[in-house]
Specification:
The complex is a heterodimer. Chain A is mostly helical. In chain A, 70% of the residues lie in helices and 2% in strands. Chain A contains 14 helices and 4 strands. Chain A has helices spanning 19-23, 29-47, 55-80, 88-104, 110-133, 139-158, 167-174, 182-200, 202-212, 214-219, 224-250, 261-271, 283-302, 308-328; strands at residues 161-162, 176-177, 180-181, 253-254. In chain A, strand 2 (176-177) and strand 3 (180-181) form a beta hairpin. In chain A, helix 4 packs antiparallel against helix 5 (110-133). Residues 1-24 of chain A have low confidence and may be disordered. Chain B is α/β, with parallel strands linked by helices. In chain B, 32% of the residues lie in helices and 23% in strands. In chain B, the strands form 4 sheets. In chain B, strands 6-7-8-3-9-10 form a 6-stranded mixed β-sheet, sandwiched between helices. Chain B has a 6-stranded mixed β-sheet with strand order 16-17-18-13-19-20, with helices on both faces. Classes of the chains: A mainly alpha, B alpha/beta. Chains A and B meet through helix 9 and helix 10 of A and helix 10, helix 11 and helix 13 of B.
Chain lengths: 332, 509
């Protein structure tokens, strides 16, 4: 949150907007996160000068981040509007498995299977949205339910997983361009477009209004229900796309590949400046949040610390960041 | 309780100053409240009343000055201290816990306990019933407060204040959500408390009430003390001049405008919603201010929401400029030429955490781009609108930081940008100071003059009488009748609003 602005004295006809206050450096959660990342990078470079700042390590780090990054771009839109989606991990697995099943068992051509998989993901997302927006089921409960439904479908259809996906499909996830694999390019493309859309377009701006005050948004002529269904559908599409890209990269669709993604991504989005109560969040901040989690994970491996330390550090940073935020933004 | 010797008043505030970063909220303010008096504290929004009350409540510590309670200097470390000293506050913002019962709220944190620290419910309910009986309210102590009407919730707040045996009771705008009869009840309670020797600080923007109930009046302006007056030795206009810092005259109602349009801007026929609203038919014409009067709960806001597409399952016909329309959402209503200024600006109007420009542009985003948004243009136009409406503190980062009057201006600015030909304003001056109120009134007159059909919902009868060209009165979800401007008085409106099966000469079907 922002530091309190210096309050203009209550004289009538003061100058409209004080430019000074607006361009001053502000200690937001995004900037704090960037500083922390910088410190971590410098620290790791000093400690492991050979292995940490290397191209193979960078690509490995990005590869592990990429699909979380794709999903986080959908989650930040939901969180700006004041809701979230717990079903994305299951959606990730389910869409990978269903697409894999179509290609191997039903012998559907690869492009058709991909399109069908994305359509299923979008519809399943829209179902979440319909329940939240129209039936007025709380987002936590609605997506907690579909999380388990999707997980069940994934195991029912794919058993533990579907291996030997056709090479025409797996190639899509493994191709490198300029030394980086497809999923990494996918993340950058979606993040750049997403940053532009969320910060500049009229359509996506409405999500900030919805998150800030849904009632007032309705009375200002914003179709809150339709907007919410769209955001959930978009989330489904991105989670499905990520699940499919993962299946292609490892040439196997595992029924549990996405488990736990939902909380990891919600954590990243909050680290990146969003709030559970809505109205705040940016795509670049979200991406920084996702990268931060991967970075900590990466450094833990170099430090030969057990993965549990990653949980402890990420969890502490999350709580401290949000607590500090409240302290900085405290109002009279 | 006997009044203490006159040498030491119940409460004496001497030379209190308080600064916040960038603002001096109070500069050497004095206030003296005697036992057994109702003392009005007047001032525009931002004059320092609420800062002063927060000091009395122990929320803020003053930078300078002293607070004497019965001659003894006190300084409170927190709200609990102030309560223990017998100071009780009823703020505008409700501090009730919705799902808990009335009794739980009244004795919040002080529930009577038996052995083992278990709450003695019977005792708690009994004592709550006594307090409620004293206030002459029929509410069960056991129902959750969220099921109560706003007015009843207010009474629960007062019961809560009484339960700590307050010697000094502070009421901030207590009547803004009360109906006339509830206000009468409140005043009766205040009289009783006064007789028992309590001191009451009464903050209100409603002059009639101040003159009715208060013994003395202290005025603040811009954090400075403007003097204390006996009720009988001061006029309303003198007080207003003190508050706004300039000479002030009440506007006389203008002569009736007569709309020449034959087709009404808005025509509503037999509108019902299956719940509260029953068979409502009326017209609003361009260039006129049509008031919808009636008691709280009579269905005025519900009617506005129904017309605006924000209330489902309505039956009946609505036509705009003679063309029938079916408005299924506020979005469609706005496109059809309607605007609605909601009653509760914090709950349904403002995006509190967002800035001035964002709030300003909310209902007309398409003006600032069809695909990408021109934020610079939005900020520029918002700044222009802020200057035109004389909005102070327009450099605030979020509208959260603005006073009530300025927040109201932000909402009006939003609709001025849209310029709806039919504009429904719901309690447009609730809780704002007299200067801002006059400005809002002038703005509504100007809009009507320029050809808008204004529908004014207001609980303040003087406001209705001074603004409206025609007055429609609602009662229990029905239209009880229409009173033409020339014949409307507070009494005639109230009679129509309260009496069932009125035989009023001007009531129409």
């Amino acid at each position: 949150m922002l530091m309190p602005a210096p309050k203009a004295t209550a004289a009538p006809q003061t100058s409209p907007v004080s430019t000074e206050a607006r361009f001053r450096f502000r200690l937001t959660r995004e900037t704090v996160l960037l500083l922390l990342m910088l410190a971590a990078i410098v620290g790791a470079t000093v400690a492991y000068p050979r292995s940490f700042p290397s191209w193979p390590n960078l690509t490995a780090l990005l590869r592990n981040t990429a699909l979380d990054g794709v999903m986080a771009c959908g989650m930040v839109v939901l969180m700006v509007s004041g809701v979230f989606d717990l079903s994305i991990g299951s959606m990730f697995s389910m869409v990978g498995v269903l697409t894999g099943w179509m290609m191997t068992e039903a012998h559907v051509p690869v492009p058709v299977a991909i399109l069908a998989g994305l359509a299923i993901a979008t519809l399943a997302g829209a179902l979440n949205g319909w329940m939240v927006a129209k039936v007025k089921v709380n987002a936590l409960i609605a997506t907690l339910g579909t999380m388990q439904v999707f997980r069940g479908i994934a195991v029912l259809v794919g058993g533990p997983g579907i291996a030997n996906l056709p090479p025409g499909f797996s190639r899509l996830g493994q191709t490198e361009w300029l030394g980086l694999q497809t999923p990494i390019w996918l993340m950058f493309a979606i993040a750049i477009v997403g940053q532009y859309l969320l910060s500049k377009t009229r359509f996506f701006r409405k999500y900030y209004y919805i998150g800030a005050n849904p009632k007032a948004a309705v009375l200002s002529g914003i179709s809150v229900e339709r907007m919410q269904i769209f955001a959930f559908a978009l989330m489904g599409l991105l989670a499905g796309l990520a699940g499919m890209a993962f299946a292609a990269r490892v040439a196997t669709a595992t029924s549990t590949s996405g488990d736990g993604a939902e909380l990891r991504i919600i954590t990243a989005v909050i680290l990146g400046g969003a709030s559970l109560s809505g109205g705040r969040g940016t795509v670049w901040g979200t991406l920084a949040g996702v990268l931060f989690i991967s970075l900590i994970n990466n450094i833990m491996i170099f430090a030969r610390l057990s993965p549990e330390w990653q949980s402890i550090i990420i969890g502490s940073v999350l709580v401290v960041a949000v607590a500090m935020d409240r302290f900085l933004g405290r109002r009279k | 309780m006997n009044p203490p010797p006159s040498s030491s008043p119940l409460l004496a505030v001497r030379g209190i100053s308080k600064s916040f970063p960038g603002v001096r909220a109070l500069k050497g303010v004095n206030l003296e409240v005697r036992s057994g008096e109702v003392h009005a504290l007047l001032g525009e929004n931002g004059a320092g009343k609420s800062t002063l009350m927060h000091i009395l409540a122990g929320v803020y510590t003053p930078d300078e000055g002293t607070v004497l309670l019965e001659g003894k200097s006190v300084s409170f470390a927190g709200a609990r201290d102030a309560q223990a000293a017998g100071i009780a506050m009823v703020f505008q913002e409700r501090s009730l816990a919705g799902p808990l019962s009335v009794a739980e709220n009244v004795f919040f944190g002080r529930q009577p306990v038996g052995r083992w620290g278990v709450i003695n419910r019977q005792e708690m309910h009994r004592r709550t019933s006594e307090l409620l009986a004293e206030l002459d309210i029929q509410i069960s102590p056991q129902i959750p407060v969220e099921n109560l009407a706003p007015a009843e919730q207010q009474m629960v707040e007062i019961a809560k204040a009484l339960s700590i045996n307050a010697r000094l009771l502070v009421l901030d705008e207590p009547t803004s959500t009360l109906t006339e009869s509830e206000t009468t009840t409140l005043f009766r309670v205040l009289h009783r408390l006064r007789e028992r020797g309590a001191g009451i600080i009464y903050i209100s923007h409603r002059m009639a009430e101040v003159f009715h109930i208060c013994d003395r009046i202290t005025v603040l302006r811009d954090g400075e003390y403007q003097g204390t007056f006996n009720r009988d030795e001061v006029s309303e206009e003198q007080l207003i001049s003190r508050m706004v810092g300039r000479e002030f005259r009440f506007r006389q109602p203008e002569s009736t405008r007569q709309s020449t349009d034959r087709i009404p801007a808005l025509k509503v026929e037999e509108l019902s919603d299956g719940r509260l609203l029953k068979q409502i038919s009326f017209e609003a014409r361009a260039g006129e201010i049509t008031a919808l009067s009636g008691l709280a709960g009579s269905g005025r806001t519900e009617l506005a929401m129904a017309i605006f597409g924000a209330r489902p399952t309505i039956t009946g016909r609505i036509s705009i400029q003679g063309r029938p329309v079916a408005l299924r959402s506020p979005r469609e209503a706005i496109r059809a030429g309607l605007g609605y200024l909601p009653e509760d600006r914090k709950d349904a109007g403002l995006f509190l955490e967002m800035g001035l420009a964002a709030n300003f542009g909310a209902a007309a985003l398409e003006r600032f781009g069809s695909w990408w948004l021109d934020d610079k243009a939005m900020e520029r136009q918002a700044a222009d609108a802020a200057a035109r409406l004389r909005l102070s503190n327009s450099g605030a980062r979020s509208v959260h930081e603005l006073s009530g009057g300025n927040q109201q201006k932000v909402m009006l600015a939003r609709w001025l940008l849209v310029r709806p030909p039919i504009f429904i304003v719901d309690e447009p001056t609730r809780g704002i100071d007299i200067g801002a109120k006059m400005e809002v009134h002038q703005l509504l007159r100007d809009l009507a003059h320029q050809g808008a059909a204004i529908i004014l919902i207001s609980s303040e009868l003087p406001e209705v009488l001074s603004l409206a060209d025609r007055i429609l009165v609602m009662r229990e979800g029905r239209l009880a009748g229409e009173i033409p401007r020339g014949e409307a008085t507070e009494e005639s409106i109230l009679r129509l609003a309260t009496l069932p099966h009125s035989t009023h000469a001007h009531a129409r079907a």
